[in-house]
Structure formats: C-alpha cells, structure tokens
C-alpha cells in the first residue's frame, strides 16, 4: 500500500488456552496475510481479541499458552468478502477480495501482484509449516489458505489478463 495506508485486519476465530488453564473462544485481528505466528512473535506485549459477546479486550501475550485456529469452514466467512462474488468466478472459488487477500492496492502493477503472490506462498505453504513441525491443524489451515491465495491470484490474472 502507498502513503502509509494500512490494510484492514481480518478477524480469525481461534480457541485460546491461557497459562492458568482457562480456555477462550475469541477472534484474533490478523493482517490480510494471515500469519498468526508473526502476530504472536511481534514486538507488542498485548493482543486485542474480540470475545464471542463482541467485546474487544487486550490480553498479555505471556498469558497465552496455546492458540488453535478454528477451521475456516466453521467460521462466519462474511468479513472480507467482495461484492464481486457473482463476477463469474468458478463455483467453489474464493469470494474473498483477491486484492485484500494478496495485500495489494487495486491500482498496482502485475509485477506487484506477482511479488505479493510469491510472498504469500512463502508465508503460507503447508510443506514449509509441516517442516517446522507444526501440528496437523496448522498444516490443514495452511492448505486451505494456499487454495484461497491461488484462487485470488488466478482471478486477478484472468481479470487483468496477464501471465
């Protein structure tokens, strides 16, 4: 994005286990790239969470023992959807805004789209996560995420007619 413009965060449902054994169901505010690991390891001491009631609270990262993303099929998938869901995309294709998913501006060049796509692939490839020894849930989530990334890139390539 240009001129310091920030991309909107998306909400990702997760089950959290705290260091005292308490379990929470909440939504994490994640960048469009969707890397929970980066969010948990960044410089911030606190994370904002949206509770099931809709209340936003801040939780100290040291209090978190475990985070398990809730599979996307069971989440409310309305956030981040494009109005262009009926733009002729193939059945079963992602209806998430491809620009938002890849983290690029609508007026970006094909080269910027390609680079963003490659970056998302590096960040989310399930083989990479499996090699890091992450649990199967994360690998399954990464597999679904890669399908969304590939679909978004294909939609942009077709719509803008580049290779």
Written description of the protein model:
The protein folds into two domains: about 10-70, Roll (SH3 type barrels), CATH 2.30.30; about 90-160, DnaJ domain (Helix Hairpins, Orthogonal Bundle). It has five helices and five strands; from the N terminus they run ββαβββαααα. The chain has helices at about 35-40, 100, 110-125, 125-130, 135-160, and strands at about 10-20, 25-30, 45-50, 55-60, 65-70. The protein has a five-stranded antiparallel beta sheet. Helix 3 (about 110-125) packs antiparallel against helix 5. It is elongated. The chain starts with 9 loop residues before the first strand and ends with a helix.
What topology emerges from the helices and strands here?
Blueprint: E1 10-18, E2 23-30, H1 36-41, E3 46-51, E4 56-60, E5 64-69, H2 98-102, H3 110-124, H4 126-131, H5 136-160
Antiparallel strand pairs: 1-2, 1-5, 2-3, 3-4
Provide a brief overview of the structure:
The protein is of the alpha+beta class and 163 residues long. The protein has two domains: 10-72, SH3 type barrels (Roll); 91-160, DnaJ domain (Helix Hairpins), CATH 1.10.287.110. It contains five helices and five strands.
């Amino acid at each position: 994005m240009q001129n310091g413009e920030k991309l909107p965060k998306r909400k990702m449902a997760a089950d959290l286990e705290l260091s005292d054994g308490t379990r929470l169901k909440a939504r994490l505010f994640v960048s469009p790239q969707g890397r929970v690991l980066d969010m948990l390891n960044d410089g911030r001491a606190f994370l904002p969470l949206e509770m099931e009631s809709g209340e936003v609270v801040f939780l100290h990262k040291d209090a978190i023992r475990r985070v398990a993303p809730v599979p996307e099929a069971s989440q409310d998938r309305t956030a981040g959807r494009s109005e262009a869901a009926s733009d002729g995309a193939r059945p079963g294709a992602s209806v998430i805004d491809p620009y938002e998913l890849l983290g690029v501006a609508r007026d970006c060049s094909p080269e910027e789209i390609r680079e963003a796509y490659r970056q998302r692939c590096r960040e989310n490839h399930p083989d990479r996560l499996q090699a890091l020894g992450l649990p199967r849930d994360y690998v399954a989530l990464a597999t679904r995420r890669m399908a969304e990334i590939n679909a978004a890139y294909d939609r942009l390539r077709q719509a803008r007619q580049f290779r």
